[in-house]
Amino acid sequence: EDWMYTGYNALSMALAMPENGCVVACEIDDNYVNIAKPFFKEPSIKCYDLIAAGEAGTYDFVFIDADKSNYDGYYEKSLELIRKGGIIAIDNVLWSGKVVNPAPDDVTSQTLDALNKKLHKDQRIELSMLTVGDGLTIAIKR
């Protein structure tokens, strides 16, 4: 699952999938959906709650790269969606180093710092943080 934005990550992942694979991209802003639409050969836009639709525990991989203030919520929903052994990748977890001693008025950095600390203690996952780019967390569901 990928929050779509312009569709770049979703398309990159789709190109790496086997023919029987499926990429689900989520976006709530119609402007971004319209930007991405021309790049998809067969756009299939559906609006529904994946968990309510009975898809909990059926996904292999979730990539989170959306509004940082909601990362914790996306993480919790992702844990519901992925199967045991599934992977959640979370982008921008280092936030240009601002997550270390975040400024009192920097809510985004504080939010990411809190999530990083939560993940470090979360017994539901195996955890690794890669220092590539702006930081990438890899969480494997136990």
From TrEMBL:
GO biological process terms, semicolon-separated: methylation
Q: Which domain of life is it from?
A: Eukaryota
Residues passing through the membrane, by range: none
Identification of the protein by name: Catechol-O-methyltransferase domain containing 1
Q: Which Pfam families match?
A: Methyltransf_3
| Keyword Transferase found | yes
Q: Write out the similarity annotation.
A: Belongs to the class I-like SAM-binding methyltransferase superfamily. Cation-dependent O-methyltransferase family.
Q: Where in this chain does the entry annotate a coiled-coil region?
A: none
Record InterPro entries: Cation-dep_OMT (IPR050362), SAM-dependent_MTases_sf (IPR029063), SAM_O-MeTrfase (IPR002935)
Q: Name one GO molecular function term.
A: S-adenosylmethionine-dependent methyltransferase activity
Does the keyword section mention Methyltransferase? Answer: yes
Query: Which UniProt keywords are given for this protein, alphabetically ordered?
Result: Methyltransferase, S-adenosyl-L-methionine, Transferase
* Organism per entry: Seriola lalandi dorsalis
